[in-house]
């Protein structure tokens, strides 16, 4: 029997509808709306496309969107100045800085400059530290979306073995921490892992996040495992994941497609984090 497809688009649609209703209620009752600011330097086509998609989602949800565009050779001080203004702006609930930044700009310094309470993609070292400690924090969007997909299918995670393939700071490491918080036994695999097939085959839950197309084949997956594919690559003009989908779907119990799985959840979690940051900023009014 083929695996049940975890439809990230449909799940995202339901979450965005909830956000839209919340935004409408706050606007009508308090005359306040959440706002998301995106800072970008240059005209990288992929970055422009991504920011435009976020702008559209914000418009549909009723969230104010502020697109701050700098030229491709913007200095570090210019970028820091923009962030400082956004930090002070009460209309801005959340801030994202789109990578890549101009050559010579210290990304770590930029990440330090964002107020943690407005850091809606867990870019700040303060928030990544809170994530490590298991404290309440605005979670990184892709890992948060992955965990939400797993929650949506209703499986018990406590005691299950999760294998995360990939150790990036953006997906691999944080999703491993989140799965630990879900009481999983977690193994992180990477380019130096000696027997990847053995590690993956032992997993009840597989999260693939390397960006290497076809890395995880069907024979590597245990019968009935849950497979979450967060890898995205372009092959012959088509988007594909790290997992050989047609093989894996015949073995797994649940699986995410690429596209249409993790991707929609990432942008939806960004909206949800913006709403959460907005609520935190106005908790005194909202609680009344």
Brief account:
The protein is α/β, with parallel strands linked by helices. The protein has helices at residues 8-30, 45-61, 76-88, 107-113, 125-133, 141-152, 172-181, 196-201, 245-248, 262-281, 283-286; strands spanning 4-5, 35-41, 64-70, 94-97, 161-165, 185-189, 205-208, 226-229, 233-235, 238-240, 254-255. The strands form three sheets. Strands 1-11-8-7-5-6 form a six-stranded parallel β-sheet.
What are its keywords?
single chain, 288 residues, alpha/beta, Rossmann fold, six-stranded parallel sheet, three-stranded parallel sheet, 43% helix
Please report which band the strand proportion falls in: under 5%, 5-15%, 15-25%, 25-35%, 35-45% or over 45%.
15-25%
Approximate helicity band: 40-55%
Task: State mean pLDDT (0 to 100 scale).
Answer: 96
End-to-end separation? 52 Å
Classification by helices and strands: alpha/beta
In the CATH hierarchy, what is the superfamily of the largest domain?
A: NAD(P)-binding Rossmann-like Domain
Q: Count up the helices.
A: 11
Sequence of strands across the biggest β-sheet: 1-11-8-7-5-6
CATH topology type of the largest domain: Rossmann fold
CATH class of the largest domain: Alpha Beta
Overall 3D form: globular
CATH architecture of the largest domain: 3-Layer(aba) Sandwich
SSE pattern: EHEHEHEHHHEHEHEEEEHEHH
Number of strands: 11
| Rg over CA atoms | 19 Å
User: The biggest beta sheet, please?
Assistant: 6 strands, parallel
- What low-confidence regions span 5 or more consecutive residues with pLDDT below 50? none
Assembly state (oligomeric): single chain
Please give the domain count. Answer: 2
């Amino acid at each position: 029997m083929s695996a049940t497809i975890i439809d990230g688009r449909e799940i995202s649609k339901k979450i965005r509808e909830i956000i839209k209703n919340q935004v409408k209620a706050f606007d009508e009752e308090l005359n306040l709306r959440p706002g998301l600011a995106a800072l970008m330097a240059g005209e990288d086509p992929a970055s422009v496309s991504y920011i435009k998609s976020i702008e559209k989602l914000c418009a549909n949800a009723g969230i104010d969107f502020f697109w701050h565009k700098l030229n491709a050779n913007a200095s570090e001080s210019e970028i820091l100045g923009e962030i400082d203004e956004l930090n002070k702006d009460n209309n801005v609930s959340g801030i994202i800085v789109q990578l890549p930044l101009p050559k010579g700009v210290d990304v770590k310094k930029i990440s330090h400059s964002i107020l943690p309470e407005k850091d809606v993609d867990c870019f700040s070292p303060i928030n990544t530290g809170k994530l490590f400690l298991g404290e309440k924090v605005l979670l990184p969007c892709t890992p948060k979306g992955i965990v939400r997909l797993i929650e949506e299918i209703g499986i018990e995670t406590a005691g299950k073995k999760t294998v995360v393939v990939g150790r990036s700071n953006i997906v691999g490491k944080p999703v491993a921490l989140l799965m630990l918080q879900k009481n999983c036994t977690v193994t992180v695999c990477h380019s130096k892992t000696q027997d990847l097939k053995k590690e993956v085959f032992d997993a009840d839950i597989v999260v693939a996040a390397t960006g290497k197309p076809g890395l995880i084949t069907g024979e590597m997956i245990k019968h009935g495992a849950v497979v979450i594919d967060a890898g995205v690559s372009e092959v012959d003009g088509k988007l594909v994941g790290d997992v050989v989908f047609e093989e894996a779907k015949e073995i797994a119990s649940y699986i995410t497609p690429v596209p249409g799985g993790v991707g929609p959840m990432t942008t939806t979690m960004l909206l949800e984090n913006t709403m959460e940051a907005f609520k935190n900023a106005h908790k005194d009014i909202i609680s009344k």
